Amino acid sequence: MQFVDLQAQYIFLKTSIDNAIRQTLESATFIQGEQVHKLEEELCEYSGAKHTITCANGTDAIQIALMALGIGAGDAVLTTNFSFIGTAEPIALLGATPVFCDIDPKTFNISIADLEQTIINIRETTALNIRAIIAVDIFGSPADYEPLQEVAHRYGLTLISDAAQSLGAEYKNRKIGGVCEITTTSFFPAKPLGCYGDGGAIFCSDAPLAATMRSIAAHGKGSHKYNHVRVGLNSRLDSLQAAILSVKLQNLDREIERRNQIADHLLAACSSTSLTPQSVPSFATSAYAQFSIKAPANQRSEIITHLNKQGIPTQIYYPSPLSSFDIWNTQEHKTTPITYNLCENIFSIPVHPYLSDYEVETLAKALKSIQRI
């Protein structure tokens, strides 16, 4: 059993992927070819976003969005303390201060109550200029965007959705990518929509802002290739990756449906144990990039060993809160006890759409057996 089975996916899509690669090679347009423009149009149609800007990776996508907003030294950006470092790294790279908020104990997404209290505390106790909120759809499950947008509006902030794990998910019957003014995503191979290398994209509803992002991604390009109107990045999705993603995008909804079917079986198996799987709110459909479970205190290592002995691969996302790394230029130190507790007990098991029915049943039986440890 594989934790993520990209080989099985390739075999299923082989003819279409091979044709897309061959056509791109024959066109010999490897940078900014028609495949890239086609994919951007397809992503707009799929997500409901007005504009899509592809780029080199998901971390660049966040940095480009922050650069387009003019965020830099003296500014603060609030985000969850439970995520991959790529969420917060661009904030620090631009000289701004990342401020980490605690999470909801059930959904594992950013706590809206802690977010608002953090905003109040920063304004009362520091000289930082809070500019934006980055909400992460952890493990593919959408954050609660309506109350997040209300908080952002109340304090004059920009809300950014980090959807690196959630493309294909839905929030109140709307596809992720078309919910927020700015959404970023990653096409890392293991993501729900992944290429065969690195890639990313930004979804945006505002035309001038989207034009600025597109310029930043291409060395600050102006009216032509050798006209530069701002400092930018060299952040492009190449034509081969775009062609592959176009094929995979046509299959994404089928895969998300299968991931949810598998997750339903695993949730049922967990119900008779002391395990606490991530809770997906009724208003959302998760992309289930991972099926993640909180173990009872001090039992994670024992449970992982038990599962591994039965042939079940496991991963730990994430073993440390972002704030625990001694790398941040931050003036704000706060406790996030729920995040720290989750990092000590979280683990993930396979939920990829190419698991066989037998493998799903094997997973369910292994989970049920945990109550006997």
UniProtKB/TrEMBL annotation:
Alphabetical UniProt keywords: Aminotransferase, Pyridoxal phosphate, Transferase
InterPro entries in the record: DegT/StrS_aminotransferase (IPR000653), PyrdxlP-dep_Trfase (IPR015424), PyrdxlP-dep_Trfase_major (IPR015421), PyrdxlP-dep_Trfase_small (IPR015422)
UniProt GO BP: polysaccharide biosynthetic process
One protein family per Pfam: DegT_DnrJ_EryC1
Active site location: K191
Modified residues (N6-(pyridoxal phosphate)lysine): K191
Keyword Transferase included in the entry's annotation: yes
Signal sequence, renumbered to the chain: none
GO MF assignments: pyridoxal phosphate binding; transaminase activity
Superkingdom as given in the UniProt entry: Bacteria
Family note: Belongs to the DegT/DnrJ/EryC1 family.
Protein name as catalogued: DegT/DnrJ/EryC1/StrS aminotransferase
Organism: Saccharophagus degradans (strain 2-40 / ATCC 43961 / DSM 17024)
